[in-house]
Design goal:
It contains four helices and six strands; from the N terminus they run H-H-E-E-H-E-E-E-E-H. It has 142 residues and is of the alpha+beta class. The protein has a single domain, classed as Nuclear Transport Factor 2, Chain: A (Roll), CATH 3.10.450. The longest helix is centred in the middle third of the chain and has 15 residues.
Length: 142
């Protein structure tokens, strides 16, 4: 599909799909049979663009101002990995809990495998506990 390197696909994904909130491009960068492992708030895998589009909408409905910053991108052949941080405000109810209005910062990492310019597999790790505590889904422990 594209002659973008794996690192360029990863950078473009975060910029276009997340920071510019362009869900219409999800299928351009995620293969029809692509699997994104461990990405949603429960840690479940998502299969294909439609499943990811639903997650994307839910996150944007919960954090309308989310913005990702990629700090490092490392690539080798069809693989790329990035360490990222995100700034967001819990201003919506897309996760099924009342909005708190609380701003927060999250950190995480993503690794992708690209074929023909599209992500065919991705592994994501991010601070779900921090998100759950900030949104009132779980109480902080002492």
């Amino acid at each position: 599909m594209s002659n973008l390197s794996a690192g360029e696909v990863l950078r473009t994904w975060f910029e276009e799909v997340w920071n510019r909130r362009n869900g219409d491009l999800i299928a351009d960068y995620l293969a029809p049979d692509g699997v994104i492992h461990n990405v949603d708030e429960s840690g479940a895998d998502l299969h294909g663009p439609e499943a990811f589009r639903s997650f994307h909408r839910r996150i944007l409905d919960t954090f309308s101002d989310i913005h990702f910053t990629l700090h490092e991108v490392i690539e080798s052949g069809p693989m790329a990995a990035a360490r990222w941080s995100a700034r967001l405000t819990h201003d919506g109810e897309g996760l099924g809990v009342p909005a708190t209005g609380q701003p927060l910062s999250l950190t995480g990492m993503a690794m992708i495998r690209v074929e023909d310019g599209r992500v065919v597999e991705s592994w994501d790790e991010w601070d779900r506990m921090r998100l759950a505590m900030a949104c009132g889904m779980v109480a902080p422990t002492r």
